[in-house]
Design goal:
Layout: H1 7-10, H2 53-70, H3 74-86, H4 90-95
Length: 96
Amino acid sequence: MTMNCWDCICNKYIPEGSKTSVILPPITKTFITGLASTYDSTYDNILLPYIDKKEFTRIIEKLNSVLFSNFPCCGSLLCTYVLALCTLGIYYILYY
């Protein structure tokens, strides 16, 4: 997965996977909740004893479809970040 200049800000706290855990990295940037609108569907061989590749791909495609269709629009995201700056983060509390 390639990194760009925004990954150090938007995806800073996403942990790395290990031998005992698999972290699905987001393809897009994370929202203020830590959730991204789409996730990487690359199959990791550590999952082989637990789930086959076809089932994994089907689950991730369904997850990405649901997230994308229910994720806030660009205007809502922009409004959230702008208002958070103006109110020094208090808007995040009111957003929920």
